[in-house]
Write a structure and sequence with these properties.
14% strand; Aspartate Aminotransferase, domain 2; single chain; PyrdxlP-dep_Trfase_small; seven-stranded mixed β-sheet; binds pyridoxal-5'-phosphate; transaminase activity; Aspartate Aminotransferase, domain 1; transferase; Aminotransferase class I/II-fold pyridoxal phosphate-dependent enzyme; PyrdxlP-dep_Trfase; 2 domains
Length: 444
């Protein structure tokens, strides 16, 4: 057979990495596919920012503001600025100082710029931290469950075992976490870290009480694990109501703080960061920082985060006195308004004791509301709802490690305006009052 006659290669998916067959990866492609299939449906599915924010965004002005700052405040020459923006850059990042200043102003987190790594979204930060912490098959990640699909996906990509720790009304199942640490040790392994989103978690909108935050820090010290604090939604807290982050309460470098600019600036910029000020014993009597190790790993993943994208974020920060809170002030107000509108619409269309089998939580911030329904909220029910009622949501089972959440769905309020929310909830109410859904019978 000549080379031209050879059959095209056919790879067996079963021979590729197991993550590809994991339900968490399927769930994301399913949602994308159903949104494409029903473009006119009102979608409560994506946790994406409100698109209207981008109408007036002047990216060129953001870039200019940052380069002016480099020239005027940092004394950089045009050639130095060109090199900084257009060449390969440091794996650790270029706007670290500005991020450190924003964390100081907004969160009372005091860290050196060297302990920050600017990543390609928070997603890369998650991946790098897990890669660094997972040294062997006995190293496990505890995850507050239900959880953001991005953490489950990252752990799965790295074959890092996960232990689900249930979320409770004002915290997490501490007894289960403590037991998981002991069990892991008894089996020769270790719980290296707990992933937790204390402020308006995705998908639950839950917050961790102050007492639970202190308790978690104490347990992390007692059982010797790190806390991976994801704070994607804390900026939506009502003025004066925010609780201190775990990192702000942390006196012993137990917390790796993970940030994203996706919701406060824009997802398209793909900028996030990890604050990793943990000391690393280098084995030669010297110490370094976990951030150094993350930057080393990053140099083999994405090399460096686009300096142009970092400059855009830098310009946006500078425009608002270096504060992410100031930069996202108007956005936070819109999201709070949308959330209040969504909760009000649910009450008007499904509340008042008329549908006791349909219940929902009432988060004080964030993007998400969980709704409990009698039917199994799976992909076939979602497809039925999209086709017959023109409204989309996300099955909560997508966010659970293991089988759970079958009778719940997640609604996101970030992407829509109040008129769309009103119409969407009307459609949702009609759907939920469909006898087949009310009776809890699965749609075939
Ligand atoms: C909990 C959580 N963390 C992080 C992110 C954002 O990650 P990225 O910066 O990679 O867009 C999201 C986005 O949906 C999220 O829900």
């Amino acid at each position: 057979m000549t080379a031209n006659e050879a059959l095209p290669v056919l790879l067996d998916r079963a021979a590729l990495h197991g993550a590809l067959a994991d339900p968490v990866f399927d769930s994301i492609s399913f949602l994308n596919e159903i949104m494409d299939r029903y473009p006119r449906a009102i979608s409560f599915a994506p946790g994406a920012p409100y698109a209207g924010f981008f109408d007036e965004l002047d990216v060129a002005a953001c870039l200019r503001r940052y380069t002016d700052y480099l020239a005027e405040t940092k004394g950089r020459t045009p050639a130095q600025i060109n090199k900084l923006l257009y060449q390969y850059g440091p794996a650790r990042g270029v706007i670290n100082e500005l991020i450190a200043e924003a964390l100081r102003q907004d969160e009372q987190i005091s860290v050196a710029p060297e302990s920050i790594v600017v990543t390609v979204g928070c997603q890369e930060a998650l991946l790098l931290v897990l890669r660094a912490l997972c040294a062997g098959s006995g190293d496990a990640l505890a995850v507050v469950n239900p959880c953001f699909a991005g953490i489950a996906g990252a752990a799965r990509l790295l074959d890092m075992p996960m232990i689900a720790i249930d979320e409770t009304a004002d915290g997490i199942d501490f007894a289960a976490l403590e037991q998981a640490c002991r069990d892991a040790r008894a089996n020769g392994g270790n719980v290296r870290a707990l992933y937790v989103a204390p402020d308006f978690s995705n998908p639950s909108g839950a917050i961790l009480s102050l007492e639970a935050r202190h308790r978690l820090l104490a347990l992390a010290a007692q059982e010797d694990f790190l806390l991976l604090e994801d704070n994607a939604y804390g900026f939506t807290a009502a003025p004066g109501s925010a609780l201190p982050t775990l990192k702000a309460l942390d006196r012993a470098q137990r917390v790796v703080y993970l940030g994203t600019c996706a919701k406060t600036c824009m997802p398209g910029v793909r900028v996030g960061f990890a604050v990793a000020d943990q000391r690393i014993a280098l084995g030669n009597g010297k110490t370094g920082l976990l951030a150094d190790e993350l930057a080393t790993l990053k140099s083999m993943v994405t090399v460096n985060t686009s300096p142009i994208c970092q400059a855009i974020v830098g310009g946006m920060l500078l425009e608002h006195g270096g504060s992410i809170a100031a930069l996202s002030h108007g956005k936070a107000a819109l999201y709070r308004n949308n959330l209040a509108y969504l909760l009000d619409a649910l009450e008007r269309h499904l509340g008042g004791g008329n549908h006791p089998a349909i219940t929902w939580n009432r988060p004080a911030g964030g993007f998400f509301v969980r709704v409990r329904i009698p039917a199994v909220a799976d992909t076939s029910l979602l497809a039925y709802c999209a086709a017959e009622y023109g409204v989309l949501w996300t099955p909560m089972s997508f966010f659970h490690l293991g089988r759970a959440g079958d009778h719940e769905l997640r609604l996101s309020c970030s992407y829509l305006d109040p008129q769309q929310i009103e119409e969407g909830v009307k459609r949702l109410a009609r759907f939920l009052c469909d006898p087949r859904v009310l009776d809890g019978k699965a749609v075939q």
